[in-house]
Amino acid sequence: MPGVTAYTGFLNIGQPKKGETVVVAAASGAVGSVVGQIAHIKGARAVGIAGSEEKCKFVTEEFGFDACVNHNSPDFAEALKNACPDGIDVYFENVSGKVFETVMPLLNDFARIPVCGLIALYNATELPPGPNLTPLLMRDILVKRLTFRGFIVWDFAAQEKEALTELAKWIKEGKLHYREDIVDGLENAPEAFMGLLEGKNFGKLVVQVSDHPAA
Ligand SMILES: NC(=O)c1ccc[n+]([C@@H]2O[C@H](COP(=O)([O-])OP(=O)(O)OC[C@H]3O[C@@H](n4cnc5c(N)ncnc54)[C@H](OP(=O)(O)O)[C@@H]3O)[C@@H](O)[C@H]2O)c1
Question: N or C: which end of the chain has fewer CB within 10 A?
């Protein structure tokens, strides 16, 4: 499912072109890692954003992104600007919050923003304190002619077979890699789920409930 999400959301909405800069939030995760690798396959430059130096190292060395920036580092904004000298043509949103606010000023005219997830907001019980950035966002949408489109993977259900065929082919060809973070035992699922919302997972979080594959 995360692979199909990445494939359909990125290609239909992001529409990456050769030589463009694609920035991917939660780049070490299940969806983000696939988006960045597809960006490469399509000839674009892939820049990841992840929550630690260790994750960033994996994103560049194992997933082949051109650069990766740590959103927990104090120089995050400057590092992202340096990693995107030609601005950002596609921003694949998995996170929102501080990460989106840092990306926003770097978006190029006619940038495309597939809005896949907003994980930084999932636990919010109230709006954050000001300033209210809505006027800046609306101005950028107009002046830069930005395209934001939210999606749920099943919007593209008709493309599921195509996505699985292509993704499987790229895995066989060694062009697409993935990482799983396996937690043992259903009793550990709640803690693992809470950890996902704090970036404690490293790769697709999977709970193993049995030694037997069919159980
Ligand atoms: N639209 C759809 O149909 C669809 C389908 C599947 C998934 N999704 C969404 O896609 C996103 C990624 O899902 P996934 O399964 O691939 O998860 P994932 O990326 O494997 O794991 C979530 C990652 O989000 C980052 N994160 C968590 N809290 C954060 C915060 N407060 N600020 C910044 N980053 C934070 C963490 O990475 P770092 O440590 O690197 O920050 C964490 O490892 C989620 O938002 C999910 O809800 C949407």
Answer: C
Q: Give me ligand 1 centre to Cα 170, in Å.
A: 23
Which residue owns the Cα nearest ligand 1 atom 24? 26
Q: Name 22's bridge partners.
A: 46, 90
Domain-wise residue ranges, the chain? 2-159+166-172, 179-215
How do residues 57-110 score in pLDDT, each as one tens digit? 999 999 999 999 999 999 999 999 999 999 999 999 999 999 999 999 999 999
What's the mean pLDDT in 120-146? 94
- CATH class, domain 2-159+166-172, is alpha beta
Q: Which of 43, 34, 46 is nearest to 9 (CA)?
A: 34
201 Cβ below 6 A of ligand 1: yes
What tens digit of pLDDT does each residue of 192-212 get? 999 998 889 888 999 999 887
Q: What's the confidence (pLDDT) of residue 215?
A: 61
| Closest protein CA for atom 29 of ligand 1 | 120
The response to whether residue 30 sits with its C-beta less than 6 Å from ligand 1 reads yes
pTM over 0.90: yes
| HEC profile of 48-90 | EEECCHHHHHHHHHCCCCCEEEECCCCCHHHHHHHHCCCCEEE
